[in-house]
Amino acid sequence: xxxxxxxxxxxxxxxxxxxxxxxxxxxxxxxxxxxxxxxxxxxxxxxxxxxxxxxxxxxxxxxxxxxxxxxxxxxxxxxxxxxxxxxxxxxxxxxxxxxxxxxxxxx
Length: 107
Description:
Layout: H1 7-19, H2 24-31, H3 35-48, H4 67-79, H5 85-94
Helix pairs in contact: 1-3
């Protein structure tokens, strides 16, 4: 994986391409980056008007339950110790948390 471009470098890509009409190959050489990186920056600019995603989503959803989530699970277990995992999942989803039912395999 290559280095992260600075914000200035990302804006330079946009300026060189759209204001100065430079070819992609020139931009790649000038900024010492890959052709795919240049295209990704230009695509982001085309879609959002920014050179980087203003609301990055990260990879997937958070895998950590909040203290409120843990409290909900605990209270469900206190009320019904034999509650099924899918019922816990449904309750968390009603609270706006997306969780999966992946469990570790038995050894």
